[in-house]
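Rotation project, supervised by the postdoc (A.L.). Task for the rotation student: set up a whole-complex structure prediction and record inputs and outputs verbatim in this book. Inputs entered:
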Amino acid sequence: MSENTYQVPTMAEMAAKGQSPEVLFWVGCAGSFDERYKSVTKAFVKILNKVKVNFAVLGPEETCTGDPARRGGNEFLFQMQAVANIQVLNAYHIKKIVTACPHCFNTLKNEYPDLGGNYEVIHHSTFLQQLINEGKVSLKGGGEFKGKKITYHDSCFLGRANNVYEAPREVLMALDAELVEMKRCKTKGFCCGAGGAQMFKDAEPGRKEVNIERTEEALETGAKTIAAACPFCLTMLADGVKNKEKEAEVEVLDIAEMIAKAEGL
Amino acid sequence: MEYLEQIAFVAVVAAATFFLYRRINRIRQNILMGKDLIRNDSRPERLRTMLLVAFGQKKMFKRMVPAILHFFIYIGFLVINLEVLEFVLDGIFGTHRLFAPFLGGFYTVLMNVFEFLAVAVLLSCVVFLLRRNVLRLERFMSSEMKGWSKLDANLILVIEIVLMMAILTMNAADQVLQDSGVGHYAAHPTGHLFFSAMLKPFFEGMAQGTLVFVERFAWWFHIVGILGFAVYVTYSKHLHIFLAFPNTYFSNLLPKGKMNNMDSVTNEVNMMLGLPTTNADATPPPTAEEIGKFGAKDINDLSWKNLMDAYACTECGRCTSECPANQTGKKLSPRKIMMDTRDRMEEVGESTAKGGNGLEDGKSLLGDFITKEEINACTNCNACVEACPVMINPLEIILELRRYVSMEESGSPASWNAMYQNIETSFAPWKFAPTDRFNWADDLKNEKNTK
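Outputs recorded:
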């Protein structure tokens, strides 16, 4: 085993060696396929490697949790996906799952138990917060975000859906940045427009796109970095920033990318 | 003559009770058109939620101005109703201020508290009228707030103002009569009542007979007004004053992100995959009739809690004003979802009571009241659910309607059908080869880990 490249063990490999990971990293479809969002997956894996977390991924054995199907109303398809995933997860005796996607997080944590899938599921924001609290990620001086204005956009599926408001903010605080809140935040956070399967269709006729409304609010804070903790939010806000022709000045980043950057990974 | 007044009073109370009983029964029957749902678990937590959210108005205080004004009206409602007890007893026994001799000086304190609250209620209602009709706050101007909804809201505020004015008038006239040492008025002194005393100059010149008439008229007006208002409330959006309590008690205690599992689907999925059906011992496989349809097309496909939600809605519009779809000009308005559900329930209930077709009238909640365009616009962000001061959940209704559209009509938007197909064939909502799923790791595995 080469020590100087990043390790991304799969469950199949681990099981073959009779090992079991402390935590399964559920990558999600966006994390696996979305060109932009794959860098979040990589950033998170680098952090896991750095702090020497005993983790594994399902790799090619992972499939969609079924969330967009369920939200669109296709309960059959959702349950087909869920039952198939649960069979795989249970076969590997998975106990703990971490994921960067709030939609996967919500489904795995809240909806799989009804179908026989019971795991301790945490979002990567909480996981990162724990690493910081335990001193495993030290962020000496905050790196390149020190003193910079950052605004955090609440993911609905993390925030209102699961009451995770503080973990991502505490992660950002650890960067020694100046966290500025948008007018609508936390329980009143305004959606990016992609939840409830909206990611997969055009919006209904209206005055404005939801992501443009939210991007304008984020830009109003004057922050040069918009932090997100959800693949859909990331896409919607990045599109919004492009639409406003601000992509040269304003970055939209996932909190894991920011930690990885600050750690020089 | 005195007996005549008592008989009239008892008759009025009996009539109000009859109308209330009949109407409450109708509402109960309408709510019970909904499907079963167990909400009797975790009683301590439910009680705590009710005490905090309904009794303690916790969620109202997310918006301070209306919260404070509403709080005055709410406390006024709770406390002034104690006075109604005296009204009712006086009415039945033909007494005057029955409690005054028992309470002595404390009666004066109590009456002053009631009057303070009456004035606070009155002023709050005036401000609320101004917010609706002069300031024209955006959430009161939406398209669903025309006609009856607008009238209903204004009527309630005006009725409350008039009722409070009746109390003050009654007390002012009473005090003038006491000052002149007239009969039982002087025998049951109220003591100095701060607010109504300010109205005394209006009455001081009046003849004794006129004053007694004014006092009696105001007494009757107030009590008949309250009874009439109680009946009116059951036909109005104002029903939240009662339903806020059970509605918060029976509210969803699980994380807002969790959708309810359709067990009928689970059984079919397990059968398709050759797995043992869940709870096979406990529940026999449901018959076709028990499965019914998937999702909701009409009110009887929703749960009784969804239906109670609709009656508990006071159309404040906090949900709609925080809905991202609505705020960007889409047709969806969570408040309208609740109003439509209620309107459809009323329509079906009325038709059934008259021996009509009821649910089988060729209409349905989905289609005739709520359109696909509305439900398709929802981002499931839970802003409406979070915003509601009495824990109404419009999202659940939207999702049940979506389930019907998807599973019974295959009528989801074409892009969603394409997404479903991608999940079925590529196991991802986008069309990528499943074998490429792990490709993201290739670069990493070759990248030097210098740390």
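Student's summary: The two ends of chain B are 99 Å apart (CA to CA).
Supervisor addendum: Chain B has 23 helices and no strands.
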